[in-house]
Design brief:
heterodimer; A: 111 residues; mainly beta; five-stranded antiparallel β-sheet; 11 strands; B: mainly beta; seven-stranded mixed β-sheet; 47% strand
Chain lengths: 111, 118
């Protein structure tokens, strides 16, 4: 089945800095890659997703890049703000068709 | 509209007791998923429903865990003879389309049930 590795497990940045979270996947048939944000005590919510037919997608301060050859994708957050502090999960949906999630990255943005 | 709801929000039980966790998906969503999230861990897939059938039960950790879905809507996750290692947040999610559908997109998560087994 699919295996998703996510790094780092914890990321601490200063307000205004950029943050990058990286994920790798194992199933070359994976075709859908969502990113979820989970604030403390709340439910995960989709913030951005990308499909395998594009290499990059942007939405204001967040962007996701996908390298199918290397089987990795990354989340980029620019001009970080304290409200960006949360746990971020990547996921990949492949041949098994159930999204497989990474273990999460705890992002801390210091004011 | 209403999102995914789960009940109870918190459940404390004694080791050896049975518990039932409920999930109400978004109306019209055909796919429903159960995940388990242990402290500081990722989302561990348990079971997936398409309509009332469960094509994928591969994530259920033992035969103490079972789930059903009726009327293509509400789902119940049952844990029998609970153990301390069952303590976790149990999340339910639903999606409009089957994950096999090329138009498949996001999963909508419920707020979770925090289960504590003493």
């Amino acid at each position: 089945g699919e295996n998703v590795e996510q790094h780092p497990s914890t990321l601490s940045v200063q307000e205004g800095d950029s943050a990058v979270i990286k994920c790798t996947y194992s199933d070359s048939a994976s075709n859908y890659f969502p990113w979820y944000k989970q604030e403390l005590g709340k439910r995960p919510q989709l913030i951005i997703d990308i499909r395998s037919n594009v290499g990059e997608k942007k939405d204001q301060r967040i962007a996701v890049t996908l390298n199918k050859t290397a089987k990795h994708f990354s989340l980029h957050i620019t001009e970080t703000q304290p409200e960006d502090s949360a746990v971020y999960f990547c996921a990949a949906k492949g041949g098994s068709y159930i999204p497989t999630f990474g273990r999460g990255t705890s992002l801390i943005v210091h004011p | 509209g209403a999102g995914v709801s789960q009940s109870p929000s918190n459940k404390v039980t004694e080791k050896g007791k049975d518990v039932e966790l409920r999930c109400d998906p978004i109306s019209g969503h055909t796919a429903l998923y159960w995940y388990r999230q242990s402290l500081g861990q990722g989302l561990e897939f348990l079971i997936y429903f398409q309509g009332n059938s469960a094509p994928d039960k591969s994530g259920l950790p033992s035969d103490r865990f079972s789930a059903e879905r009726t009327g293509g809507s509400v789902s119940t996750l049952t844990i029998q003879r609970t153990q301390q290692e069952d303590s976790a947040v149990y999340l339910c999610a639903s999606s409009l389309a089957s994950p096999r559908d090329r138009a498949y997109n996001e999963q909508f998560f419920g707020p979770g049930t925090r289960l504590t087994v003493l």
